[in-house]
Amino acid sequence: MVVRLQGLVLLVGWLALLPLAAQAETVLSLENVALPSDRAADLDLAQAATQITGVQVEPDGEGLRLVLDADGALGEPITEITGNALIVEIPNAVLALPEGGSFEQFSPTEGIALVSVTNEPGNQVRVTITGNDGPPAVDVSAGTAGLVLGIAPGLGLASGDDDAIRLGVTGEGDEGYAPRDSSTATRTDTPLRDIPQSIQVIPQAVIEDRDATELDDALETAASVVSNGGRGLSFFGPGFLIRGFENRGGIFRDGVEAFSLGALSTNDIERVEVLRGPASVLFGQGEPGGIINLVPKRPLGEPLYDVSANVDSFGSYEGTVDLSGPLTSDRALRYRLNVSYENIDSFRDFVDGNRLLISPIITWDIGPNTSLDVYGQYTSDRETIDQGLVVGADGIIDLPRERFLGEDFGEFSQDQFNVGYRLNHDVNSTLTLRHALQYQQYSPQRYAPLFDSLDETTGELERLAYFAGGHYQRFFTNAEAVGRFNTGSLSHEVLFGVEYRNTLEQPEFQFNNLYTPINIFNPIYTDIPYAIEPEFFRDDTIRTWGIYLQDQVEILPNLKLLAGIRYDTADQFRTTQDIGQPRAEFSQTDSAFSPRVGIVYEPIEPLSLYASYNTSFQPSSAGSRNADDSTFDPERGRQFEIGAKGDITENLSFTLALFDIRRQNVQTTDPNDPLFTVQTGEVASRGFELGLGGEILPGWNLTANYTALDAFVSQDNTIPVGNRLANVPDNQFSLWSTYEIQEGSLEGLGFGLGLYYVSQRAGNSDNSFTLPSYFRTDAALFYRRNNWRAQLNVENLFDTRYFTSSDQFLEVIPGAPLAVSARVGVEF
User: Fold this and answer.
1) Is the pLDDT confidence value at 15 over 70?
2) String of DSSP letters for 518-553
3) 194 DSSP assignment
4) How far is 59 from 158, CA to CA, in rounded Å?
5) Nearest to 244, CA basis, from 280, 203, 276
6) How far is CA 461 from the centre of its chain?
7) CA 207 from centroid of its chain's CA atoms
8) How do strand 811-814 and strand 389-392 relate by DSSP bridges?
9) Contacts of 507 (CB under 8 A, 6+ apart)
10) What backbone phi and psi angles, to 5 degrees, belong to 45?
């Protein structure tokens, strides 16, 4: 169990005196009780111990609340009963109080004789809570505070008793660089090593150390993920390729699709989880490369007031506020509010913008077994539309990377809000019910001259007077039940769910009129806006239903099976209309089963071997038809994957995966009529991934990932078989490492180094040009002391010229030159 600086919180209460016989039962029931752990491991006493710098004892109802402030993560505590005392042993920790070497408080409340905190040999801290006539009673359950320790029903105290003594961990759950669990792959809290599929968690520590304020930046340390867009290109929203495939509709927030045409901020995100490979069993229609799930920051039981400010060498600046804490004295009602404002400037001429984020969430523990989250998010974006540089017949034309070929008035703007709730109810220890609902609405506008054609001889770039507006609504709801039971010697955790989505899209477009051309070698900007006169309209309603079943089976302690299946049906009703013409209507219904199966075997305790088969489906648009006006079948994806996950040390883990993915029913040109398409195409992706993450030595953290990928066209009527998929590198490597001095006068001073390599990539499906390979170096310097922090981040230290992606037509997006950013923050 890991914590932030808020530390370990012990919620201490007491019961009326028990008869001596009952006390004896209590002692027997609690002997050698330990908080659960993903796996037992001997403590490495050679590691530098975490310092406990403060102890607070506060009344809490009829009991007490004991707070231990620490300068880092605390190890798993172990509890036992000795006589009238409840003893809590905290490993790999030392007590370092300003007022002395130990803490004692006598008779803090009625029924409690003494609370003491002392240092013990072997880097251990002992907390002793002594009752007047018997040991304090305890309750064990998992809650928002972390872990709760107590007596099983029938041994003197019922679960959820208000008089229980609680032992829990509060704070943000700082995982460092070695996260252990994920809910994305299974929608249950499952250790990463027990998931038979490749999943990478980018924790808060990495996001903060790299000062990654946008999702694009955070994902640079993820294996098999590359950008398919770029800063300033707010045209089709954040774009990524995972294992070679576009991530259309594959970004989620807490399991709910998080669609946006603007950049996605990380300021209200706790961590990012990348599930690689098909994920239709739990997430419905999507691409076979994988999904990205954003895990938001959650309300805390302890007050948090965090403020920070950032500036960079391009002139951008940002301010963020992160507030959290209880709203009631019993901490049953808690809140979190993240607010940030960013003024964006760029190395690109005339490109600027601003972004506002307001993200509140309230958690209400309605009862001991029921909790409700109500959340919202509002974003307002304005950003210059920038298509980057241009490609000619012989490849990328050599232009200054700051050269802007649009117009200063060209702009993307969007106001978007989400509102929703999540309800969780534990019926009993074997059954949990969940219900979620979310409504999203946004009205984007994209207004800018866009590239049309290029005369390389003269340098004249023809442009179109483009506009896209409209109104979009998305509704999502699901209901799930999680059951835990045994059948003979087999242990099951079964997930059953029903999901409904309703999407309404009413866009309008303008794209047929030419705008004044611009010379790419000597640009003269007109800065003359044009009239907005939409000429093409759509009105689409898409409804999808899904029902899914998943079973996680423990066959043996070292052998686990994961099996699941989902059935989806998608109804589309789409209309299109050219101005002055009658409206055309298209309807289509698709249904599909999506199975998955995987197995995990642990030959030795620190090593897991796995194999899996996963599938995906993606309906085609109802407006796309065969020559005979029949509809197309959904695209289908399937993946075979084998891999290994293991612990090199207690705090350092590795992952390895080999995979083969095929996406079938891909539309390709009809050889008998080039005006139509047929579903005879297939694309393939196969590769190897190796990841390493965690703490090498105290203060020295690392995350490193390498991908070798072979993504190509395997069947097609026009594109040569064997052509590389656009924007997909054959080799990709990332490393980010930090070291923080642990003691002495320079304690809190740290350094960071980042290395990023991307091999050359095909610029389009025809493979007529390539994006060159690049090697980029980043660095960081930071200082953390008490409740404040300062950091300096350098991106592209050696000013390497590189390109992040291409649109397969005329556009290529240049990477940023040397950039320096500085952030200062304080936590109250």
Assistant:
1) no
2) EESSS-------------EEEEEEEEEEEEEEEEEE
3) G
4) 23
5) 276
6) 40
7) 11
8) antiparallel
9) 468, 469, 470, 472, 537, 538
10) -70, -10
Residue in this structure with the two tokens 């999502």, named with its chain if needed? 476
User: CA of 558: how far to CAs of 193, 346, 603, 607, in Å?
Assistant: 11, 52, 7, 10
- Provide the pLDDT for residue 797: 98
Read off the amino acid at residue 671. P
Among 319, 443, 310, which Cα is nearest to 381's?
A: 443
Tokens of 638: 């399937």
Least confident of 158-167, 362-371, 563-572: 158-167
Closest to 122 measured CA to CA, from 96, 144, 90, 160: 90
Sheet holding 85-91, edge to edge: 78-82, 85-91, 124-131, 112-120, 103-109
Torsion sign, CA atoms 720, 721, 726, 727: negative
Residue 127 to residue 158: CA distance in whole angstroms: 24
Beta strands 103-109 and 112-120 are: antiparallel
Q: Are 292 and 247 in contact (CB under 8 A)?
A: yes
Can you say whether residue 460 is alpha, beta or left, with left for phi > 0 and alpha for psi between -120 and 50 degrees? beta
**Cα(206)–Cα(137) distance, rounded to whole angstroms?**
40
Closest by CA to 403, choosing from 313, 315, 525, is: 525
Residue 134 has what pLDDT?
Answer: 66
Token representation of residue 343:
């003024």
Q: Dump pLDDT digits (tens) for 690-726.
A: 999 999 999 999 999 999 999 999 999 889 999 999 9
CB 129 within 8 A of CB 117: no
CB contact at 8 A, 197 and 598: yes
Count of residues for the chain? 828
Assess contact for 432 and 550: CB atoms under 8 A: no
Angle, CA 376 vertex, CA 375 and CA 378 arms, to 5° = 160
Angle at 652 between CA 649 and CA 655, to 5 degrees: 110
The Cα 664–Cα 716 span in angstroms is: 11
CB 15 within 8 A of CB 163: yes
| CA geometry: angle 724, 725, 728, nearest 5 deg | 100
Query: With contact defined as beta carbons under 8 Å apart, do 185 and 201 qualify?
Result: no
Strands (E), 277-388: 290-296, 304-312, 317-326, 333-345, 352-367, 370-384
CA distance 782 to 227: 28
**First-to-final CA distance of the chain:** 24
Distance between CA 295 and CA 371 in Å, rounded? Answer: 18
* Low-confidence winner among 167-171, 264-268, 445-449 (lowest mean pLDDT): 167-171
Residue 425: other Cβ atoms inside 10 A: 15
Mean pLDDT of the chain: 86
Amino acid present at 639: Q
Q: What angle do CA 429, 435, 440 make, to 5 degrees?
A: 150
Q: For residue range 501-513, list pLDDT tens digits in order.
A: 999 999 999 998 9
Which DSSP symbol is given to 769?
S
Helix (H, G, I), strand (E, B) or coil at 30: helix
Domains of the chain: 8-169 (no CATH), 304-827 (2.40.170.20)
Label residue 384 by pLDDT band (50, 70, 90): very high
What would the DSSP string read from start to end of 126-148?
A: EEEEEESSSPPPB--EEETTEEE
Q: What is the DSSP string of 210-246?
A: TT--BHHHHGGGSTTEEESS-TT-TTS---EEETTEE
